[in-house]
Write a structure and sequence with these properties.
The structure is a single chain. It contains 10 helices and no strands. The protein is mostly helical and 191 residues long. It folds into 2 domains: 48 residues, Arc Repressor Mutant, subunit A (Orthogonal Bundle); 127 residues, Orthogonal Bundle (Tetracycline Repressor, domain 2).
């Protein structure tokens, strides 16, 4: 009779996520996760093939959490208000989970990156809102513009790089408002 499993993939992902959130990606090791779930490191390989798969599973978990956060924010009937709500929720989530946020935008080996279907799912709310603002033809371009700007802003904010004074919240609001206005305006490239 086989011995009962002493852990599960869900428990391994939860333990890995806790380690990531507390100490960053460098601290995420198979042995540390094994200790957190109460098994020896070789036992993890029954559930997870290696560190790259562990990182991918955690990245998927992070992306799904972010998708739920953005879905909950994207309830406004007005697309401009919807984009603002998505941007504010994205920023709040990133500031609350900086290591998880960085995981989504880190340069990782292909086998450690978020699964393509999970990545697409995490973009649903923003793509829908961008389509309402810019039209279906430019939805992806608009969404990429928003993410690129927000990622740059958040990386600077998380690094403490805004040192010239002024109110960072006001700067974020200014950026969201200007992006929204620019995306909503008629494109010089046609509809």
């Amino acid at each position: 009779m086989p011995t009962p499993a002493r852990t599960s993939t869900d428990a391994i992902v939860a333990a890995g996520r806790a380690i990531l959130d507390a100490d960053g990606l460098e601290a995420l090791t198979m042995s540390r996760v094994a200790a957190a779930v109460g098994v020896r490191a070789p036992s993890l390989y029954k559930r997870v093939r290696g560190r790259s798969e562990l990182v991918r599973l955690i990245a998927n978990d992070v992306a799904i959490e972010l998708a739920h956060t953005l879905d909950a924010a994207a309830t406004a009937k007005d697309p401009a208000a919807g984009l603002r709500a998505i941007a504010v929720a994205f920023r709040a989530w990133a500031l609350a989970h900086p290591e998880a946020y960085h995981l989504l935008f880190d340069r990782l080996p292909d086998d450690a990156r978020v699964d393509p279907q999970v990545n697409a799912r995490s973009a649903d709310a923003l793509l829908r809102t961008a389509a309402e603002l810019a039209g279906e033809r430019h939805a992806l371009d608009a969404a990429r513009t928003v993410v690129a700007w927000a990622n740059g802003f958040l990386n600077m904010e998380l690094a403490g790089a805004f040192r010239l004074g002024g109110d960072v919240d006001e700067a974020f609001d200014f950026g969201v408002e200007r992006l929204t206005r620019a995306i909503r305006e008629e494109s010089p490239f046609g509809p």
